[in-house]
Amino acid sequence: MTTPMAMHMSDGLLDPATSALFGLVAAAGLTLAVLRARRDLDDRTAPMAGLVAAFVFAAQMLNFPVLPGVSGHLLGGALAALLVGPAVGALCLTIVLVIQALMFADGGLTALGANVTNMALIGTVAGYLVALGLRRFAVRGRAGLAVMAFLAALVNTVAAASGFVVEYGIGGQGGVSLVGVATAILGVHILIGVGEGVITALTVTAVAAVRPDLVHVLRGADRPLQLRPSPVARPEESGA
Amino acid sequence: MGGGHRHPLHWPGNSPGHRLPPQVKIVAALLLVICVVATPRQVFWAFGGYLLVLLVLWRVAGVPVRWFAKRALIELPFVVLAVLMPFVGVGPRVEVLGVPVSVEGALAGWAILAKGTLGVLTSLTLAATTSPTELLVGLRRLHAPAVLTTIATLMLRYAEVIVAEERRMRLARLARGHNPRFLWQVGATARGLGTLFVRAYERGERVHLAMLSRGWTGALPDADDRRTSPRSWCAGLSPVAVTALVWGVALWTS
């Protein structure tokens, strides 16, 4: 294993006022997510969200090459939103980010609010909205589901990166042109988003193949049970 | 967590730094980083002062400087960003060794480098002296919403199980000729991830049932909620006092 790399905003990128502002934004969004997650999961909230957060944590250890020498890791925002819904997804992502900041020094303590806003709130919600918009195609079959998951993850990554650009525009260190920052950050994140999209699409279709009831966006779209004669059983029947 | 489950960023010990209540350390770390971030970037000496505070803390905690230096490498992507900034920066430029360098960009790069590094080192100090379980107890005593700390407790308890499960699945794939360096083999990895999710979710359902059968009512029983003694607050916040002093002087002189 190589040295783990910080992928979350560090301290000092944003000024204190902006950090505090997005701390408040994160707290407000999180309150909403907790309320909705309770409605989704009632007394199962803690164990289910805990296990999904552990899964996101494990999935984030997956690195994939973006450019030669640059590797991105899965953010998992869209994946969590598609599988467990936006509220539980945002909650799990937030907890993963808090744990990473406190125990792994990944992401600055003062930048925690901004990191939560970008990755757990903006990214998750944007990805889920795309998924809702494309749900019609997703319930029809595997290809539609894969395309939906791919686009949701791509938008999730780019939206989270745009959140950073906006924050840097409001209260960043400055020194470079904002257009330059936007081009570089969004460029890299479109590439990361493609990787994230491919993995999310394959993962979601794999889950849908075994336990379609576990894919949150597909809820209520169960197709009626089909009875098909088994091709294996037939020769035995004729022989008997 | 027993032996073999030691957290990679925790340095077990029994120093005064380790013995402080976790909530004191969390508050101290946060205040320290806020001071660092709020310091005007052109007051260069102040950042040296902050580093000195951290060095004293490491001495007290008995954690070698080398240990921190190695783990601070996590910050490398931001170092690259900081080094690039003087060259891509805007505004007036000065010649340094024949290369035109943006003054504004250089200052911004310095700020990202200095504040980011001090932030990482502070977080590492907190993680080194406080075990993950203690950190969660600290968050709970600081009145973090119970639902969040409960989820975090369960997540932390099962993260190692899930990560170990992923590792076993990856080993099994490798043993069957999987080569994850090839892009077209990403399918196997992702399907493994799907399986991992189903297993994690189903484990969650079992954990929930197990918790119910042991009297789960929706909230963790109240942990030891003793009041933190003023003495430990004083001890824990003393480095913050020094930092705040440096910060005040830095603001005054800038």
TrEMBL record, chain A:
The keyword Membrane applies. GO terms for cellular component: plasma membrane. It comes from the Bacteria. It is a multi-pass membrane protein. The keyword Ubl conjugation does not apply. GO terms for biological process: transition metal ion transport. Keywords: Cell membrane, Membrane, Transmembrane, Transmembrane helix, Transport. The chain crosses the membrane at residues 49-67, 79-103, 109-131, 143-166, 178-210. It is found in: Cell membrane. InterPro entries: CbiM/NikMN. It holds the Pfam family CbiM. This is Cobalamin biosynthesis protein CbiM. It comes from Longimycelium tulufanense. The lineage of its organism: Bacteria, Bacillati, Actinomycetota, Actinomycetes, Pseudonocardiales.
Automatic annotation (TrEMBL), chain B:
Keywords: Cell membrane, Membrane, Transmembrane, Transmembrane helix. GO terms for cellular component: ATP-binding cassette (ABC) transporter complex. The chain crosses the membrane at residues 20-38, 43-61, 73-94, 106-130, 142-163, 233-252. It holds the Pfam family CbiQ. The keyword Membrane applies. The keyword Zinc-finger does not apply. It is found in: Cell membrane. InterPro entries: ABC/ECF_trnsptr_transmembrane, ECF_CbiQ, ECF_transporter_component. One of its GO terms (biological process) is cobalt ion transport. Its main location: membrane. It is a multi-pass membrane protein. NCBIfam families: ECF_T_CbiQ (TIGR02454). This is Cobalt ECF transporter T component CbiQ.
